[in-house]
Amino acid sequence: MTPREASQAPLEFGGPLGVTAMLLLLPATMFHLLLAARSGPARLLGPPAYLPGLEELWSPRVLLLLFIWLGLQVALYLLPARKVAEGLELKDKSRLRYPINGFQALVLTAVLVGLGVSAGLPLGALPGMLLPMAFATTLTSFIFSLLLYAKALAAPVSALAPGGNSGNHIYDFFLGRELNPRLGSFDFKYFCELRPGLIGWVIINLALLMQEAELRGSPSLAMCLVNGFQLLYVGDALWYEESVLTTMDIIHDGFGFMLAFGDLAWVPFTYSLQAQFLLYHPQPLGLPMALLICFIKAIGYYIFRGANSQKNTFRKNPSDPSVAGLETIPTATGRQLLVSGWWGMVRHPNYLGDLIMALAWSLPCGISHLLPYFYLLYFTALLVHREARDEQQCLRKYGRAWQEYCKRVPYRILPYVY
Ligand SMILES: NC(=O)C1=CN([C@@H]2O[C@H](COP(=O)(O)OP(=O)(O)OC[C@H]3O[C@@H](n4cnc5c(N)ncnc54)[C@H](OP(=O)(O)O)[C@@H]3O)[C@@H](O)[C@H]2O)C=CC1
Ligand SMILES: CC(C)CCC[C@@H](C)[C@H]1CC=C2C3=C(CC[C@@]21C)[C@@]1(C)CC[C@H](O)C(C)(C)[C@@H]1CC3
Question: Where in the cell is it found (predicted)?
Fold first, then answer.
């Protein structure tokens, strides 16, 4: 890229040095967590009990399994959809079209896995394959991101993301150059964001539950709660699939290593950490505590769903009766900002609900180890950083109206605290 073509967008994630560190640290952290979960001490901090050799990580059979999985999800994505949604307007004034059939893909995957298990598919063997599976997925994400980078070299300037075109190869490879890379009507980013990793996560959880039942006669209450909570989260994401079209990932971020690795590897192998931990470190959980944890999950879900649905309904149709009575601030762009309802409580109520749910996912694992709380810690850091990125974008987009909103709603995520 010539310097003239390089975008002037401010560098994020600590620039080239920061993203180089993340390129190495993210996969290393994922393998550390996988090894720690199965080790006796299950330490989050400190060196792993041992370092696996290449023969433990590399398996052509597992790579083949991964490709079968990706192929299955592609086939389900290509099935006729109940609805085709339009994305937000792009720089060239066009709008992309997206199939809404993610929930259908989840149900069909469940049916196929159910049929497979009843025909003797050894799903309980999956936990023993997590290390080579994570290795194959990391390798695939890396090669996939290189291909995406190469594809973006031929993309028109109007198709590039605002952030991933600094002219620095490593930085752009990490953030992603092209906003919506597609092959025909197949959208790589949209597909990866919601299908193979997210559905893979609940399949891994289920395999861990089945393995626990095989080992101990029945699944524990803690394992059932973790499975149920995370299945609800994934089911919700696919049921409300259309709302992903207005997230920062789809409208702002390019598709590079960060999202490819995040979607395909990081989500299934680290978000299933609580279930992995429970398989190797069973935790007693009484009914009263289980009910309290369900209550916390319900509060988190109520806030998360309420806030996301309120904003999505408002963005789609501000005169919808459920949002028409809410107070708003007009902006120079013609759009309005909500200042009452969920979005008048804090500036990111959906993050608050998501964090409360994250706490409920960890609590069934007890308080003897820090490891199952990794997701809560990582997610807090991710959302605080994401919130700061979003605020900068909103300030650029809405200027004074955003400043007025910040004055009216001073707290970002947690009322009276942050
Ligand atoms: N589990 C996980 O790993 C992750 C989960 N998430 C979840 O994904 C969901 C989506 O998050 P994300 O994409 O970050 O951002 P949001 O859904 O919070 O969207 C932010 C956008 O909403 C609009 N907005 C902000 N304030 C207002 C307001 N007062 N009134 C109307 N519109 C407003 C602005 O866009 P505009 O005005 O242009 O519409 C802003 O850019 C969240 O629930 C989050 O918790 C996110 C990351 C990771
Ligand atoms: C590993 C890196 C530091 C960063 C990678 C981040 C990604 C793992 C996340 C970025 C935004 C995400 C979203 C979801 C999953 C995690 C990633 C991909 C999401 C699909 C989870 C389900 C939710 O209901 C959602 C709102 C649809 C989420 C959208 C953002």
Answer: Endoplasmic reticulum membrane; Membrane; Microsome membrane
The closest residue, in CA terms, to atom 7 on ligand 2 is 262
70 lines ligand 2 (CB under 6 A): no
Q: Among all ligands shown, which has an atom nearest to the Cα of 335?
A: 1
Write down the pTM of the prediction.
0.94
Residue of the nearest CA to atom 13 in ligand 1? 247
Integer Rg of the chain from CA = 22
Q: In this predicted complex, what is the ipTM?
A: 0.97
pLDDT tens, N- to C-terminus, the chain (418 residues): 444 355 667 888 889 999 999 999 999 999 999 999 999 899 999 888 889 999 999 999 999 999 999 999 999 999 998 899 988 888 888 889 999 999 999 999 999 999 999 999 999 899 999 999 999 999 999 999 999 999 999 988 888 998 888 889 999 999 999 999 999 999 999 999 999 999 999 999 999 999 999 999 999 999 999 999 999 999 999 999 998 998 889 988 999 999 999 999 999 999 999 999 999 999 999 999 999 999 999 999 999 999 999 999 998 889 999 999 899 999 999 899 999 999 999 999 999 999 999 999 999 999 999 999 999 999 999 999 999 999 998 999 999 999 999 999 999 999 999 9
Closest ligand to the CA of 18: 2
Identify the CA nearest to 43 among candidates 377, 372, 382. 372
Ligand nearest to the CA of 315: 1
**393 alpha carbon to ligand 2 midpoint, in Å?**
18
